[in-house]
Each structure stands twice: as C-alpha cells, then as structure tokens.
Design brief:
Length: about 800
C-alpha cells in the first residue's frame, strides 16, 4: 500500500501545470456521470464535488438520500437535456417521491492557466403544486491528493447566514475559490412543533468538515449521512419526553463543526417549495468574478447556440411531432455526452484464469502470447486513467470496450476532437502484447458497482473490436471536410491535397483535427502502431483451428474462436447468452471471423490514409481471405444461412445454426457482397415476422427458436439498438446503394426498419421517461437498465441518417 501511494504521488507531480490551459482543453467537466450531479477535473487525484439531497416531508426520505444514480431511487427520469463538454449543460431530474423537479445548470468558463472556472446552478420546483415540496440539498467539495481546502466564511455553531466562501489550492489547479450563494426567493419551513426550540438554526446553511482517508472522497455521501444522523440523534435529545416529533428539517442537519486538516467540506440547505442556489468555482489565474448574471446570461446563450448547432448537426425529419422528436434526440445525445467520465485507479487482472477448452497452445498455433504468465494469480495493476463514455450512468458507469466504438461514432459527429481524445485514452491502454481489458473497472468507486466475480479481467479475453470505427469515422469526416475536389481525387495528405475550409466557425468547438492537416496526420500516425499491435494480438490469440476436422476453405489461416467462453455464455462476444455449440477447442465463431474481416478492412483504410502501402496490401489480402472463408466455412447449404461451426463426438465439423443476430454478421458488417446470391436468404430471415422482424426493430433471436425468450433472456430475443444501427448502416451504405438484384428490397427494408426503431424508442421514452438497454421482442417495451444513453442513443444518428 505504501508503495502504491508513492507511485500515485510521483504520478501527480508529473502532470505539469502548462498542460492545464482552459476549459476548452476539457480539464473540468461533469466527469462523475455515476452521480446525479458532480464535477471533477481530468486529474488523477484532485478536487471532487457532488450533490446529495433528500425530502424532509418525513423521516423516511432521509434513508433514501440521492447521490449516485440508482434505479432503486425510483426517479421518473433524469437526463441532460442539453450538454456540451466544452460549454456546459442543463439537466432535469424528476424526483416525484419528494415532489421536486430539480434542474442542474453548468457553465464552463475559459481563462487562466489552470483549467478555467465554472458555475453551477441547482434549482427546484414542486412537481405537484398542490402538495408540499420540502427538501434538503447538500453540496460538497472534497480533496484527494495534495493541496488544501479551507472554509473562509466565519463559522457559527448554529449555521451560516449568507454566502459561503471556500478557498483551496492543489499543485495542478493552483489557487481557487468556491462560493455558494442562495437565490433571491428561497423559503424555509419554520412552523410546526418545536420550531421555537430550533429557531436559531432555521434558515441557515449548515456545514461540516471531515477528515476522510485518502482514496475515500468518492464515498462522501456515507460520511455526510452518518454525520446528519448522528447530529439528529443529539437534537432529538433536546425534545425528549414529548409525544410529537420535530419537523425533520429541524433535526436532520449537519453539525456546524469543522476540523483542522479537513479534506471534505459539506454545506446543507433546506427549502420549502421553489428554490435556487449557485456554486461558483473560480480559478485564481483566470481573474474572473462569476455571479448570478454570469449564469442567467451564460446558460441562455449556451442553450440557444446548442439548439442551433444541434439543428444543423443532427437534423430531425419533418413529421407532426418533429419538435418532441428533436427534444428527445437532444436529450439522448446530451446524456451520452454528460455520461462521459474520467476514471483513475487500479484494476484487477488475472492472467492465470483459463478454461479447459482454451488451453490450445499446440505448436501449430504458435500461441506464445501467454508465455510465462500462466503461473501468476489475480493482481492489481498500476493505476491507469481513462476518459470514456459510459453505457448507463446508473448501471454501467464505467468504460466498456465494445460499447465505446458506437459511443465514439455518435460523439465524433458532435465534437470530433473529443472523440479523438477519448479514443487516444483507450489506445493508451493497449498493453505491450496488444491487449485491452474489455471492461475498465478503475478504482474503488468503479469496483463498488461490480460483483467480485466479475472484477478480474483476463489478458487472453477479447471483445468485438469496435474502437477502429472511431478512426474510420474520423477519416470519413476528414474527407467530407476537405471538400468535393479533394474527395474526387482521393485525399492525399502527403501530396498536400488538403484544403483548409473557409468557415472556421466551430474551430473552438472540437474541429481542430479536421481543420489542421498536420494535426490529423500526426494523430493517426501516433495511434497506428498500438492499433496494429492490437490487431495482431487478435489474430494471434483468437485464432481457430482450420487444418483439423476435415475442413476445406480457400484460406488456410482465417478462422477464429472467442476465448474465455463458459458452457452457457460467450461474454467476450458481447452477445452473452446467445445459443452456441457446446464448448470445444475446435469450434469456430462466425461473428468473430466477421469482426476480424471488419478489423482488417478498417486497418486497411487507416494504412491507406497514412501511406503504409505494404501494410495496406497485407490487410487487403487478409480481408479478402476472410470474405472467402465466411462462405467456405460458415455457409450452410442445408439451412440456407450463415452459422457457427462446432465439432461433434466423432470429431466431425458441423454447422451450428441458430437464427438470430449471429446469422446476420457478414451482412451487418457489409462483408457480404451486394451481388451475393446469399443476400436474398439473409434478407428473408431478417424481414420475416416469424423470425427476426418485429414492429419495434430486429430481434436478437428468431421468435420461432425453441430458446426464444427463455433463461435469462438477454440475447434470446430482445431488441438491441446498436445491432439495429449496424443493420441500417449496412442497408443504407451497402445494400440499398449498390446495384444488385436485392437493391430495391434493401431500400424498402431500410425505410421501414428505420421508422420502427425510431418510433418505438421514442414511444417508450415518452411513456417511461427513459431510454433502455434493450426492448422487448414481443411488445417493444423498454427492458433492463435505464437510462441507457450509451449505444441506445444511436437513435439520434438513425434519425439524422448518419452512418
Ligand atoms: C494555452 O493557451 C495559450 C494561449 O491561449 C496557447 O498559446 C497555448 O498553445 C495553449 N496550450 C495548450 C497546451 O493548449
Ligand atoms: C441513406 O442515407 C442518406 C443520408 O446519409 C440518405 O440521403 C439516403 O436516402 C439513405 N438511403 C436510403 C435508401 O434511404
């Protein structure tokens, strides 16, 4: 532990203040998306802020104080309705149990050399005007690592009247001030039994200081709740012997005490009805004084420019409910952006873990990637940092490899440079072997959300390689940005064919890498080698057996198998419980071969773009070999579909055919040529209501399959939006746009599928207040975790037809 601590300290001191320029450099953000509202800078150990609240209409509500997003809290919806990582955002939280609609507004303010400043406004109003809406809000600031935090305002044992001022300093943020200021019209509850006893404390801001052990600021709520409960116990002593209780707002209060060496300071306010208070964080080097007018004007201006930019970036088709659809589209995009988090900490890896059927290190496989590691047990890695979007702020508030490729498609359309920044963070996690853990559970806070048996990551396990989507999308945008002339010629950076755009209206808005050819090229070059290592890791470690079991295929190398599957699950494939063959060292997985075809193709495009000609030829030949082997190994003439391949008791190879998403993979990833005679069968399967077609989108498993809707029913029927996005992309870009016998049919299916997906996700959002992880295969109802503004937010791209 001592060693680890020293390591952390040495890491901190290597972050130079020069790298923290202004908020347009994305130092500060709502980078704690697991909280309803919380900010931190993109610095490993630093200032962390957050918000805790509860209702004071009764004593029970206190036991359900809100802090980390939790489905059990039963909020009727919470989402950033507008959000931009560089400018700020507006979030609406509907806490019906406490009869309060809370709005959090955030404004990033540039300036100085230490990451800029920000201002936040927390306001609330009753949802039902006819009922009481009594609440208590606690805002806290805690410090990890080196530095100090002081309460400047004079303390009073009965609480503080008027604004609160804190000062602090850290090596990276330098000196800063935090002020908490009430709005003009707040009311408090001051009637009822014992109001005379507590009169001196009513209407004040209460506070407490804590000395929290290093690494525990994330658990601030526990310290705060314990302190309030403890203090309430004492307050109740004052009125002992009476039959009636004092109002909860008189007793559930912080103690109004601080300690020397506090590293967590909490401030608590009580409201009756509508309220508002502001928090201003001012970096001293910015020399800017923020006030309520900054927020009034800043938020209005932000909101107007966001509307305008959204309108241009993600146009919503005309329809009778266009306005509602656009608000919905803004909300899912904003919550994806507001769901970006910064994580820092150790993770657990277990190199020793292996299933029997994965132990295939025969000489022919030349599988030497695990050399010398098999004997180690689970261990903690060194701390790592990651800026990443999160699939679900409540249920999956951490980085997921296969989700991230989809997130970055969406983020990149809004803020190209932000998507590259996040991509670079992931690329930096690729280890010397070329491996990246599929789930990034960094630090104690992240681990607190994951059951122990799922915490360890195994360095021989893969996940669908979606990250390169972000790279090819960037290349597509570069081509678009360069203008039609360059597009016709093919964009050649080396020959200087890049044309600077005339309009730079968004140059501070995340397009620097689109506008500056040198930046773009050096970025692509900087990620190329690690990506290549990653690609080679896949080819080496996930290879399938081809020469055995009498298999015939044109390519003698291209066959693949997911490692790390169990009897019932192939978690690494991302399609956890989808039916597969019984585990066998000789089985082959169609989806993985397809992903490898996709990976080869994207590597080819990147190599072409940066002029790695030899590599390009190599990737192209592997891509071709994979396309051939998809047919040679995985097409079942009997079933007229693409299938996995298993090995039976007589050591014979056979097709394992379960109609569903797996069968569609060569089509989903556009590896099936538009003139393939097999395309007709694929389209039959997906458009047949007895199988995959539903009025709500494509089902994961055929409705006629014996396992449809059974077991845990995760990938045995339910509708997933990212898979529907892949289908729509393939239809739009490949099958409806290339001449072939099925072009017209592809066009019709595209139009209808797109409408179905949009209509259902939108309808469920209106009905429930959330977008969901998946949708019921029979009814279309939202299922499982929510809000799920990870890849379900792709509906914005579907609406605006960005593929
Ligand atoms: C910081 O800002 C200054 C002036 O605005 C600029 O010249 C410099 O390049 C910036 N540094 C970084 C790392 O962005
Ligand atoms: C595919 O999307 C583009 C916009 O990106 C759209 O113009 C086109 O009509 C779509 N194709 C079909 C078949 O609808």
């Amino acid at each position: 532990m001592q060693l680890l601590w020293l390591l952390l300290l040495s890491f901190i001191t290597t972050v130079t203040p020069q790298s923290l320029n202004s908020s347009s450099s994305l130092v500060w953000g709502a980078f704690r998306p697991n909280l309803y509202f919380g900010l931190r800078p993109r610095i490993p150990q630093s200032l962390m802020t957050g918000l805790v609240w509860f209702g004071t209409q009764d004593y029970q509500s206190f036991t359900k104080a809100r802090h980390a997003c939790d489905q059990g809290d039963g909020l009727d919806g919470y989402t950033w309705t507008q959000f931009d990582a560089r400018e700020g955002g507006i979030q609406v939280l509907k806490d019906t149990e406490n009869n309060v609609k809370v709005t959090t507004e955030l404004l990033m303010v540039d300036g100085g050399e230490h990451g800029g400043s920000w201002a936040a406004r927390i306001k609330g109003e009753p949802i039902n005007e006819g009922k009481p809406s009594r609440t208590s809000f606690v805002f806290y600031a805690g410090l990890e690592g080196m530095g100090g935090l002081e309460l400047e305002t004079d303390e009073d044992e009965n609480g503080i009247d008027g604004p609160i001022v804190l000062t602090g300093s850290t090596p990276e943020l330098d000196d800063f001030t935090i002020r908490i200021v009430d709005g003009p019209n707040n009311k408090v509850f001051s009637d009822g039994p014992f109001s005379d006893v507590f009169a001196k404390r009513i209407g004040k801001t209460h506070f407490s200081g804590f000395r929290v052990p290093q690494g525990n600021i994330w658990a601030a709520k526990e310290f705060i709740i314990k302190e309030i409960a403890h203090n309430a116990g004492k307050a109740v002593q004052d009125v002992k012997g009476s039959n009636s209780h004092p109002d909860p707002s008189f007793t559930l209060q912080l103690s109004d005490e601080t300690l020397s060496g506090n590293n967590l300071l909490a401030f608590q306010k009580f409201f009756d009805g509508k309220f508002q208070f502001d928090v201003f964080y001012e970096s001293r080097s910015a020399r800017k004084n923020l006030n309520a007018v900054t927020l009034d004007e800043g938020i209005a201006a932000f909101s107007a420019s966001f509307n305008q930019r959204f309108h241009e970036t993600f146009p919503v088709p005309d329809s009778p409910n266009r306005d509602a659809l656009e608000a919905f589209s803004q909300a899912i995009t904003s919550n994806l952006l507001g769901g970006i988090g910064y994580f820092y900490g150790t993770s657990i890896i277990d190199p020793s873990f292996s299933y029997d059927w994965d132990d295939d290190s025969s000489p022919a496989e030349s599988d030497d990637d695990n050399r010398g590691r098999k004997t180690e047990g689970p261990r903690l890695t060194e701390p790592e940092a990651l800026l990443t979007a999160t699939p679900s702020r409540s249920f999956f508030p951490r980085g997921f490899y296969w989700d991230e490729g989809f997130h970055l498609l969406h983020i990149g359309e809004w803020d190209n440079d932000l998507s590259l920044e996040i991509l670079k963070n992931w690329i930096d996690l690729i280890d010397d072997d070329g491996w990246v853990a599929r789930e990034q559970i960094l630090g104690e806070e992240a681990r607190s959300k994951v059951p122990a048996q799922f915490q360890a990551q195994v360095p021989s396990f893969a996940n669908p390689p979606t990250l390169t989507m972000a790279v090819t999308a960037f290349i597509k945008r570069l081509r678009r940005h360069a203008g039609p002339t360059d597009q016709d010629l093919g964009l050649d950076f080396g020959a200087g064919g890049f044309q600077l755009p005339l309009s730079t209206s968004q140059s501070s808005n995340g397009n620097r890498y689109l506008e500056n050819r040198d930046l773009a090229l050096s970025f692509l070059q900087s990620i190329y080698q690690p990506l290549k290592r990653h690609y080679e890791w896949f080819r080496r470690t996930q290879r399938g057996q081809l020469k055995q079991y009498g298999r015939k295929a044109r390519s003698r190398t291209e066959a693949y198998r997911w490692r790390g599957r169990s009897e019932k699950h192939v978690l690494t494939s991302g399609l956890d419980d989808y039916p597969r063959a019984p585990p066998h060292i000789g089985e082959l997985h169609l989806d993985l071969l397809s992903w490898m075809g996709f990976f080869s193709r994207t590597m080819r495009e990147i190599a072409e773009f940066i002029g790695e000609e030899e590599d390009r030829l190599n990737y192209a030949s592997i891509e071709k070999a994979i396309i051939q082997n998809i047919d040679d190994l995985h097409w079942s003439e009997d079933s007229q579909m693409y299938c996995d391949v298993g090995v039976d008791d007589d050591d014979e190879s056979y097709h394992v055919c379960h109609k569903g998403y797996i069968s569609l993979f060569p089509f989903l990833l556009s590896l099936l040529p538009p003139d393939s005679p097999r395309l007709g069968s694929v389209l039959d399967l997906l458009s047949d209501p007895k199988h995959l077609w539903s009025p709500f989108g494509l089902r994961s498993l055929s409705a006629s399959h014996p396992e449809f809707g059974t077991g845990e029913n995760y990938w045995k029927g339910p509708i997933w939006i990212q898979m529907n996005y892949l289908a729509l992309q393939a239809l739009n870009e490949t099958y409806a746009s290339h001449v072939g016998p099925y072009q017209e049919r592809a066009r019709l299916i595209y139009t209808e599928l797109r409408q179905n997906v949009i209509d259902n996700v939108f309808k469920e959002y209106e009905r429930t207040g959330y977008v969901w992880e998946q949708y019921d295969a029979n009814t279309g109802e939202g299922r499982r975790s929510h809000p799920f503004t990870g890849w379900t937010s792709l509906v914005t791209l579907i609406l605006s037809q960005k593929y």
